[in-house]
Amino acid sequence: MTLRWFMAMIFLLYGGVKLVFGQFGHIPLNEITQAATQKGEGFAITWAFFGYSRPYELFIGLGEVIPALLLLIPRTATLGAVMYFPVALNVMLVNYFYHIGVHDLSTVLVIMNLVLLWLDRRKLLMIFWKNIPTGQASEKGREVA
Questions:
Q1: Is 116 helix (H, G, I), strand (E, B) or coil?
Q2: Backbone angles phi, psi at 102, to 5 degrees
Q3: pLDDT tens digits, one per residue of 8-26
Q4: How confident is the model at residue 53 (pLDDT cuts 50, 70, 90)?
Q5: Burial tier of 22 (Cβ tally within 10 Å: 0-12, 13-18, 19+)
Q6: Which of 8, 31, 57, 114, CA to CA, is 20 to 30 A from 91?
Q7: pTM, two decimal places
């Protein structure tokens, strides 16, 4: 449960900022060009790309807030973990490939998400295979997390 709450709080914070205030802001074109050509800064280019379209920023924010809210509700926690994974993985890859600087946090979130998915593996496998034995293990594993 602690993993779910921590993951949810981080995504609620980042997603909420995107929805309410806007995380990326607006960077003037001349600064983007200067950062890209002279400094080779992936950060400025990435921030400019994400900040260019407010609707896209809102979409990203919803992509973080909705899985976070689902993680907080025990009945929907597995669905929240499934929805959380591609978003968290994308954030981690953007952080690494464009040198955003929060590699450690995004990596920890992906690992925590993988742990949650592993604990719910029987539920998830039942979606694809009918003959998976259901047991108390996955439910007990969820309580431990």
A1: helix
A2: -115, 45
A3: 999 999 999 888 887 777 7
A4: confident
A5: middle
A6: 31
A7: 0.79
Helix H, strand E, coil C: the string for 60-106 is: HHHHHHHHHHHHHCHHHHHHHHHHHHHHHHHHHHHHHHCCCCCHHHH
Contact 15, 68 (CB under 8 A): yes
- Cα separation, 145 vs 141, whole angstroms: 6
**Cα dihedral: 107, 109, 115, 119 (round 10):** -160
85: tokens are 């994974």
Separation between Cα atoms, residue 120 and residue 58, nearest integer Å: 30
Please tell me the predicted confidence (pLDDT) of residue 143: 45
| Alpha carbons 94 and 50: distance in angstroms, whole number | 11
